[in-house]
Structures are given as structure tokens and as C-alpha cells.
Amino acid sequence: MIQIGVVLDEAGLLRSCKVQGHAEAGPAGADIVCAAVSVLLRTALRTLSGRKGIVIRGGAPERGLLWMEADYTAEGREFLAAAGAFLVEGLKSVSEDYPDYCTMKITEE
Fold first, then answer.
1. How many other C-beta atoms lie within 10 A of the C-beta of residue 21?
2. Which distant-in-sequence residues (6+ apart) come within 8 Å of 54 by Cβ?
3. DSSP the chain
4. What's the pLDDT tens digit per position in 8-28?
5. How many angstroms separate the first and last alpha carbons of the chain?
6. Its pTM surpasses 0.70
7. Do 41 and 49 contact (CB within 8 A), yes or no?
8. Whole-angstrom distance, CA of residue 47 vs CA of residue 79
9. pLDDT in tens, 46-72
10. What's the pLDDT at 69?
């Protein structure tokens, strides 16, 4: 089971995302649930990294664990809002389509 935890700030902007576990919805290397979640989060990391006004930290310290944290200034706010909304909606879609293999919890700080 993949467990996704997303933290949004009081304005609804992405502050962090942590993905842990394995879906086991298919054979290793051919698991569409793992692939979808991985691609969404890695793309968000790459899209946000180096963007002016946004500082991203993240990593994959072990197999089955991927995390990211975001800080932003006024200059990066609009871009983070759009990219974060895209990521959250994508992850939410995967968890709704495959509830036996992926859960998601969104909290606000």
C-alpha cells in the first residue's frame, strides 16, 4: 500500500509531500499505481526545483520513500500554487482510482 501525506499551508499552497510504501498492484517494474505516483512527484520536484522564489528540498533515501518540502516567497507563490494544485489533484486521482493500493491524507498547517 502506498501512503501519501500532503501538507498545505493556510493559503492552500503545498508545503510538503511524503510518499511511502509499495502499491503491489502489479509486478515489480510494471506497477501502474507506483509508476503514476512516482512520475507525478518526480515531475513536481523537477518543475519546482530552481524556480525563482521557490526553495525545494526532497529526496528518496530508500526504496519506497520519496519526499519533498517547499518554501516560497511572494515571487514564487503563483507558480507554486499552480504546480502544487496539479500535483495534489493528480495524486488524489490515483488514490481515488486505486483505493486498494494507495491512500492519501491532506492536512493544513
1. 16
2. 48, 70, 71, 72, 73, 76, 79, 80
3. -EEEEEEE-TTS-EEEEEEES---SSSTT--HHHHHHHHHHHHHHHHHTT-TTEEEEEEEEETTEEEEEEEE-HHHHHHHHHHHHHHHHHHHHHHHH-TTTEEEEEEE-
4. 999 999 999 999 999 988 887
5. 25
6. yes
7. no
8. 10
9. 999 989 999 999 998 998 899 999 999
10. 96
